[in-house]
Amino acid sequence: MRLRSPSLPSRSRVAAAAALVAVAGLVAVVVSSTPAHAGKRPGGRVVILGFDGVDPELYQKWAKDGDFANLKRLAQSGAFAPLESTLPPQSPVAWASFATGTNPGKHGIFDFIKRDPSSYLPGVGTNDYVDPTFTPDGKLATPPRATNPRQGPPFWKVASDAGLAVAVLSVPYTFPPDPLNEQSRMLSGLGVPDLRMTNSSYAYYGSDVKPADSAKPISGGVPFRLEFKNDVAESTLEGPVDARATTKPRPRLKVPVKVEKLGGGKVRLTIGGQAQEAAAGAWTGWYDVSFAFGDALVEHGVTRARVLSVAPEVRIYLAPVSMDPRNPPIPVTSPNGYGAELAKKGVFKTVGWVEDTSALNADNYGVDEETFLQDVYSIVEEREQKTIDALAQPFDLVISAFTATDRISHLFYRLLDTGHPEYDAALAKRYGNAIREAYRRMDAFVGKVQAVLKPEDTLIVISDHGFHSFRRGVNLNTWLVQNCFLTLKGKGCGDAVKPADMPNGDFLLDAEWTKTKAYAFGTGQIYVNLAGREKNGIVAKGEEYDKLVTEISAKLGALVDPKTNTKAVAGVFRGDKSFTGDAAAKAPDLQVAFVEGYRTDWKSILGGMTQEVVVTNEKKWSGDHSSSDPKDTQGVVFASVPIQSKSPGIVDIGPTALKRLGVAVPANMDGKPIL
Length: 675
Known about the structure:
Number of domains: 3
CATH superfamily of the largest domain: Alkaline Phosphatase, subunit A
Radius of gyration: 25 Å
Distance between the termini: 31 Å
Strand content: 15-25%
Oligomer: single chain
Strand order of the largest sheet: 2-35-24-1-23-9-10-22
CATH topology of the largest domain: Alkaline Phosphatase, subunit A
Number of helices: 15
Low-confidence stretches: 1-40
Number of strands: 35
């Protein structure tokens, strides 16, 4: 059962203006953003708006209270329904199913994290990045490049190959961009790394940074201590790893940073020779930042800063350095010059994790809610404009995705759920309506889009999954140790391991693999230490395997949180029974789905352990869905025409668009047209 949402105090809307890793050529070739006319399609064009993480129950609750006039009108003239997500119901899996129209067993994306059975180490499950290489005399041998492990062509590529003009804007996990026909345009979304080739790493400069913390990365950021002499402090900004280096760890390239106190509540911030002045509470403009690998390669990035305070401490937040859309080291658009064309209306972030959740979620050296929301809504405004511009062009298919609804839900659910351990009544008075405001902004934009569409056009609005409160975390590796499925070096398992004896590190480095039957990585994934697959596998295929996964499933399904005396697990799914296709062999052996209020514990994701199996979530990241029960974590779908399916799913959207465009649906797709 879902937690009941309390009545929320109303507040004025956050104003948009205020609340708001193969180089194809180092010099961008600018191309026109206007496609050649593809001809009028029989049923008009198809427009798909994706809003990550919109929950059907929250939508319906607030709609009943009078919100969302545009979406309600769309539903009345067309249709609204909950939209089946994926197993698990998380962004990389669901958006990959959206793109390909297939289940994860075909597209091969099962989580943010993947594990290497030859090393028992985790890696990024959604992209692979390769550093540039250099000849002995310092010349560029191979440029940086990226690959996407997703298998199967996305439906927009199918449409493009059929000769249609398509525009794909910021759809998650579409990096690197797909090669499309000359009429089409694409801007990659979630999955694009920052210039450091990380998911998203901000910098924090402050006189409050402890000396011992300076330049030591924290989760999602790097703090640098400012030590002022005559009102001037000097520091550095770190960029990509110096791929020429032979020492380990390889150092990062750097550019100088200087902060000057100017008086009157202002500072001058100089980055790589570019100076801008800003007062406390203000954002700077964009900085162009370049990192040179000698004379062989220069990687260009962009960033901006917000001065958090000037007194008593100088505190400055610097956004993750995005690859410069005008000249990225790895293409982020298709064609490559499309980024430069888009930037004519203003430079923008290209990093896929564009809303900096790590900076708000940080325990120290981060930002506050106001700063986060200002940044988020500036991004929303920019993406809205790109979408409207695309709709003014003769594209047959326009797909545009927004992630603000998801990110705000992750970080502000604590102010919606009064029972959350991080609920703060004072903050709730100011920001308790943040998620609802994000939904309102979505509704307002849907209205803007409706206003420019023609009667014969098809509008589809979707979300990839729903949302839940995340009050308590379950550490699967700790549970596996307690139940003797995982054995620790020199310590054993079960009652032989006391809570204080649980290891503190990540990556399961303390596992005794010759005695371990199962282990966990990612959000709810359990892997069997299978003979012939894992490096030191001990479980035989067949009867022994079946008996093991059945036992784990039964015991996990009976897990009760000792604090609340309630069940924490909604179901345990076998990978070999849940996924079909050529990539199904990469699936986890078991996927755990948790009930409302529970998720995989933070440390379990990277193979860490906690002293107790169930622990309290003390993060601002207070809402989640990544390891929830798919039946209870559906997204939404609205359409301008009636839906002809009783249980539409996210795998159905691509086939639906192709049918509306008169393009044959590939036989490999699992989804079926619903309109």
